[in-house]
Design a protein that fits this description.
Ubiquitin-like (UB roll), 2 domains, 34% helix, alpha+beta, L-amino peptidase D-ALA esterase/amidase, 15 strands, single chain, 28% strand, eight-stranded mixed sheet
Length: 394
């Protein structure tokens, strides 16, 4: 049984926004006001729910929860989309005896179409009536689109005052390449926290997790990660030690969810962990990691289980990073195939064959100078990815 943080309830229903025979609308609600935090897409076309979330959190960090739908992105819908978003919050909050500003919206689906408000009007009372009857697993399934499985992770932090539980869920399989991926992430916690610190902690953890993955190089209009801490447990994050302990668990949860997104990549079969070090700066290391992780040639070689190191070296060389090409060393796990600007002699393909057959493959790139580092998890690129996205709207 999942360790659910104290004071949170779930409800999920089938609203029929796009899918049939499955839930596609969910709410996660705290019994009391919770410190809310959010990290959002940097895409210039920000979906209406993203805009409304940001505006709400600017007014007050204390909210009660989040309302999430799958199948309707409400992105690129203009002022009408903003008004539709507010209307959905009003419909659901009225049924629950809340204020619309108590809820943070999140949506995922096809860009362009407006909400079907008739379906929202029918769904609001049904969702409210089911509050407390749904499980976190049902909620995680309700937010899925092309995902193959629900993604949940959890952990706990201890202090002399008590135990804090953290539970997170996410959706995402394609359109993934954050700078904050299409991905949604939600974290609930029963610790008592300072809202400003909670926001900063979420951003730090997001940068080390959801912002360190890529499936296809695309960043969505709807990318959102929200975190709520309601103080229902006796754990108080009121000292450097308790804050560090809580943030460590938050990071573990976020990194576990981020890994599952890459593992569940549309059509994906591999998870490539790209570790770049010895760079002049972290920025240079990140440029190399993303050039490799987003390269269609590297990703297709990964799918074919072909250790084509030349594609990786070429991607690093065109990344825009500053480094001496004569110092670069490349390894697959513990096997070095390219060292200080030239290939290592021997039958590398035979040595690498067992490694390339695994789901998880580690690629180490040492640029040879400096202290800059970067870590990126990337999927392969398969025929199924093309099939999924060629007819996604139909």
């Amino acid at each position: 049984m999942l360790p659910i943080p104290e004071g949170f309830k779930f409800a999920s229903i089938e609203a029929g926004f796009k899918y049939s025979g499955r839930d596609d609308l969910t709410i996660i609600l705290s019994d009391t006001p919770a410190a809310g935090a959010g990290v959002f897409t940097k895409n210039k076309f920000q979906a209406a729910p993203v805009t409304v979330c940001k505006e709400t959190l600017q007014i007050s960090p204390y909210v009660r929860g989040t309302l999430i739908n799958a199948g309707q992105a409400n992105a690129c819908t203009g002022q009408e989309g903003i008004e539709d978003c507010h209307a959905t919050l009003a419909l659901v909050s009225k049924e629950l005896g809340l204020n619309p500003s108590d809820l943070l919206p999140a949506s995922t689906g096809v860009i362009g179409p407006r909400y079907d408000m008739d379906k929202w009007k029918q769904a609001a009372p049904l969702l409210a009536a089911k509050l407390g009857e749904s499980t976190p697993v049902q909620a995680a399934k309700a937010i899925m689109t092309t995902d193959e499985f629900p993604k949940l992770a959890w952990g706990s932090a201890e202090s002399s005052s008590g135990t804090a539980k953290i539970l997170g869920m996410s959706k995402g399989a394609g359109m993934i390449s954050p700078d904050m991926a299409t991905m949604l992430g939600f974290v609930i916690c029963d610790a008592e926290v300072d809202p400003t610190w909670w926001q900063e902690a979420l951003r730090r953890c997001t940068d080390k997790s959801f912002n360190c993955i890529t499936v296809d190089g695309d960043t969505s209009t709807n990318d959102t990660v929200l975190a709520f801490a309601n103080g229902a447990s006796k754990f108080k994050a009121d000292s450097p030690e308790t804050r560090d302990a809580l943030e460590s668990v938050l990071l573990d949860v976020c990194q576990s969810l981020a890994y599952m997104i890459v593992q569940d990549a549309e059509g994906g079969t591999k998870v490539m962990s790209i570790k770049v070090f010895g760079a002049p700066s972290d920025e240079d290391a990140n440029l190399v990691a993303r050039a490799v992780g987003n390269s269609p040639l590297v990703k297709t070689a990964l799918f074919g289980e072909d250790p084509n190191w030349g594609r990786i070296v070429a991607a690093a060389g065109r990344s825009g990073a500053e480094f001496d090409e004569n110092l670069l060393t490349l390894s697959f796990g513990k096997i070095t195939v390219f060292e200080k600007g030239k290939p290592v002699e021997g039958d590398m393909d035979a040595l690498l064959d067992p490694i390339m057959r695994k789901q998880d493959i580690e690629v180490l790139i040492n640029l040879g100078e400096g202290t800059g580092t970067a870590l990126l998890m990337a999927s392969d690129l398969t025929r199924d990815y093309i099939s999924i996205n060629a007819d996604y709207r139909s």
